[in-house]
Amino acid sequence: MAIHKLVRLVGLAAGLLVVLGSCQREDISVATRADDAFYVRSNGADMPVRVKGNTASQTFMLMIHGGPGGNGAFFELNRDAVRPLEEKMAVVYWDQRFAGSSQGNPSRATVTAAQYGEDVRKVLLVLKARYGADSKLFILGESWGGFVAPAFMTAGNNQALVKGWIHLVGGHNFRLQDSLTREMIREYAGVEIAKGKKVGQWEELVRKANAVNFQQYNLDVSKTMSLLGEDATELTEEYQNKVTVDGIVNVPSFFRRNDFSSIANLLSYVNPSRDDANTVAVRNEYSSKLHLVTVPVLIMNGKYDFLVPPKLGEDALRNLGSVHKKLLIFDKSSHDLIAQEPRRFHQEVQAFVEEFK
Predict the structure, then answer these.
(1) In this structure, CATH architecture of domain 2-173+252-356
(2) Lowest CB count within 10 Å: 31, 163, 293, 340, which one?
């Protein structure tokens, strides 16, 4: 599987440490089927980066994975979604600090929104140093990556580095997100109960959602709402496309969203920094800062995503300062949008990049 190939390549690349301003150009591939691996160091973290696809296009899409504690391999597993992208551009798979196969010895004190944004900036600068200052860069933030992306985009003049941002089921405001999850559970429960479908399960789900105390919003509240959102997603599976990952149909959500193919990835999943990062997201929000973003933005949400409800995408659309901004709702998807409607996903991404590169 592609995920094991990634681990092997990252292992082979362990000796290649790319630091801003000290890139080894002899290892750079300018080709239609490039496959480069290197590390970027940022404030104690040595973060693996894999650049795969058409580097000759001089167009690069940096994938900012979810989690926290996920990894770039999540995108690679969704081959039907990303393989067509690699033919048109170079796709950049990156493991964040305390995630995936990242190394080094960063302090937990570096788990801040500002640091994650700075890490994105350093990866982008290394891409320009390696592949040319005229390289056209885009970012795509998925789920938790949709919190990291605006941390980068709204800081200083960072957005000048990119041609556009794709906000994929992005969680830019956890408190609003969790309240919208409860609202969405109530809404769908009413519809499904009226149809006589899974009445007892929906009633119990609403009871649990109503019992959550948002007056004392904290990490525990957010975790509870995420679990209830997952339950609601399962109750609406009949309306969704099956999830297909690397040719395997209907992969259980726990395994399709977490790569345990290496000890490093396993440890990143249980690392206490996951809670640190989630706490940062619970205590911060970017709705009030999105007006600072002026580059083109494409927002994608799944109709049946109870974890990051479509109304959060509407919040982003409403608050963004961009002239060119668009919200797309995928009617057969939940939170695993790229695995449920991969063809539409890559077509929309390609069209966006082509328009604004």
Answers:
(1) 3-Layer(aba) Sandwich (3.40)
(2) 31
